[in-house]
Amino acid sequence: MRVFSGVQPTGNIHIGNYLGALKQFVALQDEGDCIYCIVDLHAITLPKEPKELKNHILDVAALYSAVGIDLKKSIVFVQSDVPGHAELSWILTCSSYTGELSRMTQFKDKAKGDESTPTGLFVYPALMAADILLYDADIVPVGNDQKQHIELTRDIAIRINNRLGDDTFVVPAGRFLKEGARVMALDDPTAKMSKSAESEMSRISLLDDDGKIKKAIMRSTTDSDGEIRYDIENKPGISNLLSIYSAFSGRSIESLEQGYAGQGYGTLKKDLVEVAVDALSPIRDRYAEIRHSGELKAALEDGAERANAIAERTMKRVRERFGLGR
Ligand code: TYM
Q1: pTM value?
Q2: How far is the CA of 21 from the centre of ligand 1 (A)?
Q3: Where are the alpha helices (DSSP H) in the chain?
Q4: What average pLDDT does this structure show over 292-307?
Q5: How far is residue 256's CA from residue 274's CA, in Å, rounded to a whole number?
Q6: How far is CA 54 from CA 113, 162, 178, 302, in A?
């Protein structure tokens, strides 16, 4: 089984990214061949300060290692180190429809009908499809917000397979966790936790110190009825905290509801602080050890080479099928 996924190199990688995606990346290492990418070409769909982008690429690489990705076993690499991504992206762009790209909710949310929306944001899903199809991935571990992009990847792959042969592309499947697939903002549990939200209290970043973790959880928005019960519609704040607690601790929501029955929100929050700090402080320590190490740079170099070898095999097949080249 081949596994592929990616994270954009931006700052503020948060517990939503961790509980929805990175935790799966680590677990899947025991089940298949894993390829984890730092998608810098995706990051420039919105203008980025070049120096900052370069740093964020290494930040994400170090976080991959810090959360438990084995840089020797899995392939970890930077997207722009493998030219096949950009090439296949163009080919898939030509096989995708403007209608389906216009229906992507992430595009609609970001573009809001503005005519000066960068075209890259519009064709972003074709680049994401290229990432996945380039490696013949079977499984793509992601959070819920990427579901639509994975569906589109499947549609494009099937469309091309129907035209050019069933074995042109492997049709991938998304993998989503029960708890953690959609972590909501702590200060507004009706919005997704995001890297770009202005308020620091909306998220817990993986590198936040214990004090910040405590503040964000203790101040998180709940409701006034005082009952610890999972009910997304009517109690989005408490439901989000239960979900986060469950994802960090492995305890089911039902067991948490029973365990906290009759207790106040303060107790639940205090315990969640402890659970989150216990999970995140070792990540912070490992990150500090590896971020500026030669080991990290060497791993990315090696990752690029290994990824390129697989990508080049796919591209040979794809160029052949499409009749490209001499
Ligand atoms: P990105 O960088 O926004 O997010 C990285 C991963 O974190 C998940 N995620 C969340 N999960 C739960 N709750 C949240 N609040 C939350 N926010 C983010 C995302 O679903 C993702 O799995 N387009 C992708 C990157 C990408 C990719 C790919 C992924 C590019 N090519 C190929 C898989 C395969 C993105 O922007 O993720």
Answers
A1: 0.97
A2: 7
A3: 15-17, 23-28, 40-43, 50-67, 84-93, 98-102, 105-111, 119-134, 147-164, 210-218, 236-249, 253-259, 265-290, 294-322
A4: 97
A5: 15
A6: 31, 40, 34, 18
**pLDDT category, 116, cuts 50, 70, 90?**
very high
Q: List, in sequence order, every residue forming a beta bridge with 140; answer none if it has no partner.
A: 174
Lookup: tokens for 25: 């990346």
Residue 144 Cα: closest atom of ligand 1: 20
Q: 248 CA distance to ligand 1 centroid (A)?
A: 18
Token duo for residue 26:
């680590």
Atom 20 of ligand 1, residue of closest alpha carbon: 143
Handedness of CA 25, 195, 19, 177 (dihedral sign): negative
Nearest CA owner, ligand 1 atom 31: 128
Q: Give residue 167's identity as a one-letter amino acid code.
A: D
Is a pLDDT exceeding 90 seen at residue 82?
yes
CA–centroid distance, residue 143 to ligand 1 (Å): 6
Q: 7 C-alpha to center of ligand 1: Å? A: 6
Cα–Cα distance list, 204 to 13, 14, 146, 239, 259 (Å): 9, 5, 20, 17, 25
Pocket around ligand 1 at a 6 A CB cut-off: 4-8, 16-17, 20-21, 39, 42, 128, 131-132, 140, 142-143, 145-146, 181-183, 192-193
